[in-house]
């Protein structure tokens, strides 16, 4: 029970008990006061949100206009640069900058490290005579800047594209030597141990588009081939079949009789045959020249 001191007519204070009805009234008043304060804060918050929502379309409209103006100015520079590029550079680098007899500029380190034409301008002005590129010293700085804008635009488009087009030009990819590619195929690469130009690879260049052929050469489809394994038990029994499960603890096969069997790895001797192991091993041995040369050789198998 709560107690409070109540003064009498003579100013003396006496202790008296707070009745349930008085406590109930006090709680009611306190609750009503808290509710009123909550409504007042809620009204203030609602008013602030209303003001923000009212101003938001105006702010966004201003931002949108600013963005459009920048995009139009940039597109003008890109269009001018594209016209200059086609008339001066397309013969070697292709009309879109992705390469022809000359290298692909869209994915070149020079363009990726260039800032506002600072690197591109030097190459355009001086040329690269040792690589067959003439000097364009007569080209004005603003023209070079516009060509740089075009190349950066092309690089951004390539960066944000999810894939290359399926009919990517063979002329852009065929930069290797087919004779040297055949020598690698038959010799150092060891490709001829599993493949034959007159067998499984006969006419391969007609079966696939260039980009797809190159992808299959480097990253063959692992779903079309399966690993096999031979498991030898401690009592000498052997089981051979398709490798289905493999981790650090267990090994599981679909055996030649069609039954699935599994064993703890520590209890068996295991031999695994992976048809793609040679391809994986080559990934760490290939040079850029090897890749281009072997691809050129495969493209000759028509």
Protein described:
By secondary structure, this protein is α+β, with helices and mostly antiparallel strands. It has four domains: 15-73; 74-167, Cytochrome c-like domain (Cytochrome Bc1 Complex, Chain D, domain 2, Orthogonal Bundle), CATH 1.10.760.10; 172-222 and 281-299; 228-274, SH3 type barrels (Roll). 50% of the residues lie in helices and 13% in strands. The protein contains eleven helices and seven strands. It has helices at residues 20-88, 90-93, 109-113, 120-126, 141-160, 170-173, 178-186, 204-207, 210-218, 277-283, 288-299, and strands at 3-7, 13-17, 228-232, 238-246, 250-255, 260-264, 269-273. The strands form two sheets. It has a five-stranded antiparallel beta sheet, with no helix packed on it. It has a two-stranded antiparallel ribbon with strand order 1-2. Strand 3 and strand 4 form a beta hairpin. The radius of gyration is 39 Å and the shape is elongated. Mean pLDDT is 79; it is low at 1-6, 13-17 and 62-73.
Give the SSE layout:
Layout: E1 3-7, E2 13-17, H1 20-88, H2 90-93, H3 109-113, H4 120-126, H5 141-160, H6 170-173, H7 178-186, H8 204-207, H9 210-218, E3 228-232, E4 238-246, E5 250-255, E6 260-264, E7 269-273, H10 277-283, H11 288-299
Antiparallel strand pairs: 1-2, 3-4, 3-7, 4-5, 5-6
Q: Could you list some keywords that capture this structure?
A:
single chain; 302 residues; Cytochrome Bc1 Complex, Chain D, domain 2; 4 domains; 5-stranded antiparallel sheet; 11 helices; 7 strands; elongated; disordered N terminus
């Amino acid at each position: 029970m709560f107690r409070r001191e109540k003064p009498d007519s003579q100013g003396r204070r006496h202790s008296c008990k707070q009745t349930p009805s008085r406590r109930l009234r006090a709680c009611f008043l306190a609750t009503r006061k808290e509710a009123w304060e909550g409504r007042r804060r809620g009204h203030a918050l609602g008013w602030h949100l209303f003001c923000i929502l009212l101003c938001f379309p105006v702010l966004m409209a201003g931002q949108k206009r600013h963005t459009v103006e920048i995009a139009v100015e940039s597109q003008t520079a890109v269009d001018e640069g594209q016209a200059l590029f086609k008339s001066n550079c397309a013969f070697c680098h292709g009309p879109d900058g992705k390469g022809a007899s000359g290298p692909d500029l869209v994915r070149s380190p020079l363009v990726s490290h260039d800032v506002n034409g600072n690197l591109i301008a030097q190459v355009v002005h001086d040329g690269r005579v040792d690589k067959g590129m003439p000097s364009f010293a007569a080209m004005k700085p603003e023209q070079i800047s516009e060509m740089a804008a075009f190349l950066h635009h092309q690089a951004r488009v390539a960066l944000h594209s999810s894939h290359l087009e399926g009919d990517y030009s063979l002329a852009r990819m065929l930069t290797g030597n087919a004779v040297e590619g055949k020598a690698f195929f038959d010799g150092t690469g060891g490709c001829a141990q599993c493949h034959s130009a007159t067998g499984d690879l006969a006419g391969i260049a007609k079966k696939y588009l260039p980009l797809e052929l190159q992808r299959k050469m480097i990253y063959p489809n692992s779903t079309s081939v399966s690993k096999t394994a031979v498991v030898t038990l401690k009592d000498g029994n052997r089981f051979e079949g398709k490798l289905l499960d493999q981790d650090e603890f267990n090994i599981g096969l679909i055996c030649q009789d069609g039954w699935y069997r599994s064993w703890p790895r520590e209890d068996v001797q295991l031999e695994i045959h992976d048809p793609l192991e040679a391809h994986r091993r080559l990934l760490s041995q290939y040079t850029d020249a090897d890749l281009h040369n072997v691809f050129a050789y495969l493209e000759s198998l028509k």
